[in-house]
Amino acid sequence: MNPQNKIIQLFKSLLNKEKQDVLKVLNKISTNEAIPSKDMLVSSCPHCKSKLFIKNGYRGAYQKYKCKSCFRVFTSKTGTSLHGLHKPEKFQLYKSLMLEAYYPIKTIANKVGISIQTAFDWRHKILTGVMKDDKSFEGITEIDDVWFSYSQKGRKGLKYSKKRGGNKRVGDNEFQAKLLITADRNRSIDMSLACIGRLTKADIERKISGRFSEDCVLVSDKHRSIAAFAKSENLKHISFKASQHTAGGEYHVQNINNMAQSLKGIINYTLKGVSTKYLQNYATWYQIMREKINSKELRSKLLKNKNATQLFVNREVIYEWFIENLSKRTYRCPVKKTYQSAVDQEDLARLSLI
After folding, report:
1. By CB distance 3.0 to 4.6 Å, which of 137, 171, 340, 342 could disulfide with 141?
2. CA angle 281-284-287, nearest 5°?
3. What is the pTM of this model?
């Protein structure tokens, strides 16, 4: 019997409390492991972006640095989703469970042993911290918009609380949040929350303009905005009636349709609906699960995004801008929870959030 099977057999013989104690020790060991050298590389100060900094001791296992321009101290975790965690061993377990299944908030909170609010915050810290991979699209590229009912789930103080989950009006209307999905046959995928209401050429340009190779062939249904976008990008465009689902042969959008059906099932049934405010994060979660990345790869992704903390604390500011500029809805009932580092709407462009 090899050591791994022997350990598993011994673990099964333990009592439930003893199993929990062993898991806690293993999680602590995993959390305190030496940081890979590639994660420790720091190219600039996360506060002022200066490249003039020096080493300044250690904070636990992490190298500290001091900026010679703004004189602030930072580590490789500063500004990322891993910064300032009070329960790192539980966060490690939480991260692993997120890669295992789409657990509802209450379920994962009970599994990890944390509060529902902490479970909610950690979920969106992780999903906010995963940077979008702006790869180019090559060859046959499918594009389509997926509709989700505008939802204000979880927002307190609404007068008509029964309408919090969205509007049942059929057809393309001003209550439909549009998630633009673009995917080529080389597994380059982009999922971007574009607007609420009818998708326009400007919405598509804002999300994916300039990311197409010369040999790219854009395939879609007969959406006028997509056709106008393809013309402006000088792309070969093949379209078909939505009821036909294909233009024949390899020219179809079945890959996107399969992703859309799967994502809608997860959001509407497994997770019982999500707020439009967080729809982009759940699309990111779907991509993470689709790519089947492991906990180590996810940690590496989180360490790369030095704007994650600002993105997380300014989520309400971003949502307000989105509602006022990319929809005909009215921004109502701002959340009472605020952060000291929240920024004004004028700073959104600087942070490249939109």
Report:
1. 137
2. 160
3. 0.82
Q: How far apart are CA 16 and CA 12, in angstroms?
A: 9
Q: What is the mean pLDDT of residues 224-249?
A: 91
Helices 88-98 and 295-304 cross at an angle (nearest 10°) of: 110
DSSP state at residue 347: G
Fold adopted by 140-276: Nucleotidyltransferase; domain 5 (3.30.420)
Domain boundaries, the chain: 42-75, 140-276
CB atoms within 10 A of CB 208: 20
Outline where the chain has alpha helix (H).
Answer: 3-12, 16-31, 37-40, 88-98, 105-112, 116-129, 201-208, 224-232, 254-265, 279-291, 295-304, 308-313, 315-325, 348-351
Banded model confidence at residue 148, pLDDT cuts 50, 70, 90:
very high
For 61-89, the pLDDT digits (tens) are 788 999 989 999 999 888 899 888 888 88
C-alpha count within 13 angstroms, C-beta hemisphere, residue 265:
6
